[in-house]
What we know:
The protein is an alpha+beta fold. About 15% of the residues lie in helices and about 35% in strands.
Amino acid sequence: MNRTMTCIACPRGCLLTVTGSNDNLEVSGYQCPRGIDYGRQEILLPLRMLTTTVRTMSVESPRLPVRLSTEVSKTRIFECMSVINHFTLNRSVKAGDVLIEDVCATGADLIATGGFDNEG
Ligand code: SF4
């Protein structure tokens, strides 16, 4: 294997090269040890943090920003988005409230990152 990728663990964006086999991966191009972990993780089980919005019942504030509570496998993102896209918020919430527990059995909860007043 010989793959290049940009490390997204910090804004520096080092260009990493990962070579070798899955049980013996070599990472080069990093400027700190987090790049080694990122390069290996991207090959073995890529993870992503999902941030998006959900629909609300409000005409004035029709979307509320949300995120998953933890990173999930990159392969599960579309599945999670399908559930999130079918969700409509119909109650008041504050930032940090859980809107959906254990989305698609990933272990990640859907969390409000802003407040929503259903009465307003
Ligand atoms: S290798 Fe380290 S310095 Fe480079 S982008 Fe990744 S986290 Fe940032």
